Automatic annotation (TrEMBL):
Signal sequence, renumbered to the chain: none
Species lineage: Eukaryota, Fungi, Dikarya, Ascomycota, Pezizomycotina
Annotated PANTHER family: ASSEMBLY FACTOR CBP4
Membrane topology designation: Single-pass membrane protein
Protein's GO biological process: mitochondrial respiratory chain complex III assembly
Record protein name field: Cytochrome b mRNA-processing protein 4
One GO cellular component, as annotated: mitochondrial inner membrane
Function: Essential for the assembly of ubiquinol-cytochrome c reductase. It has a direct effect on the correct occurrence of the Rieske protein, core 4, core 5 and apocytochrome b.
Subcellular location: Mitochondrion inner membrane
Gene label: cbp4
Similarity comment text for this entry: Belongs to the CBP4 family.
Keywords: Chaperone, Membrane, Mitochondrion, Mitochondrion inner membrane, Transmembrane, Transmembrane helix
Length: 92
């Protein structure tokens, strides 16, 4: 018969420094895992195979991220042009 230690027993055997690092990253890992599971659940609702649904979701997320970057860039350019116009107006 094999006895497998629990997560807590393994954690207690860590060095104090390693315990601190594990505790510090635990919340972020849990958030990442929860997001991953939610994403899988969303992809599984589709009639398509999960890998195709996942690929489509990734493409959609990528397009949204590109749109946000474009909007930020446009806002930056508009702000720069406004500042340049302000400087030109103040020098005249």
């Amino acid at each position: 018969m094999w006895v497998t230690p629990t997560e807590e027993e393994i954690f207690k055997k860590y060095s104090p420094e390693l315990q601190k690092r594990a505790l510090a990253g635990r919340e972020q890992r849990q958030k990442d895992y929860d997001a991953f599971v939610a994403q899988l659940k969303e992809a599984s609702r589709s009639d398509k195979p999960i890998w195709l649904a996942q690929k489509e979701m990734d493409a959609k997320r990528s397009a949204e991220a590109q749109q946000i970057r474009r909007e930020e860039q446009d806002a930056y350019v508009a702000e720069e042009r406004r500042r340049q116009a302000e400087v030109r107006a103040s020098t005249q």
